[in-house]
């Protein structure tokens, strides 16, 4: 297997980095997959944490994932995307793990859930269900339409370790 390119994952913290996240999403979801551009940037964007994966040292953006609050003790994973030419390098796995680590830290500090667990919800495209299943995501309910394409609600019970 070809070696994974050098990279870093940051939390987008200024307008330029947020726009870079949107560009990766539009490349993947709109141009590659054909989802409508009108719904790509949505009501969750202003209230989400945006993780941006970029190559080093060039800082070219190639992957994204987004985290938002879903309800009390529940978070939402959305807009996971890696540019087509950079797939199968485990970048998708690394983005999900980074999001899970962030949730664990957030739940630990902010909401006093150490030693318990929180829920992470995801609306998965059908072919990607098996990718999320590797982390323990379990389907809930029937498939439904989102942005013109069938999706499945998945839920993960994410343990929140006790702080050392
Ligand atoms: C889904 C996506 C982010 C995965 O990114 P990636 O960097 O290629 O994935 P990884 O290299 O981390 O893959 C890890 C494992 O998941 C599997 N996998 C990767 N993409 C998959 C997919 N689309 N469906 C099912 N399994 C997948 C790989 O085979 C690999 O399995 P292994 O550990 O047994 O070898 C990427 O395919 C993508 O951007 N797809 C288009 C956008 C999309 O569908 N996003 C999800 C919306 S719900």
UniProtKB/TrEMBL annotation:
Read off the Gene3D superfamilies from this record: 3.40.630.30
* Limits of the N-acetyltransferase domain: 8-161
Q: What is this protein called?
A: N-acetyltransferase domain-containing protein
Query: Which terms does the record give in the GO molecular function aspect?
Result: acyltransferase activity, transferring groups other than amino-acyl groups
One Gene Ontology BP term is: UDP-N-acetylglucosamine biosynthetic process
**Pfam families named among the record's database cross-references:** Acetyltransf_10
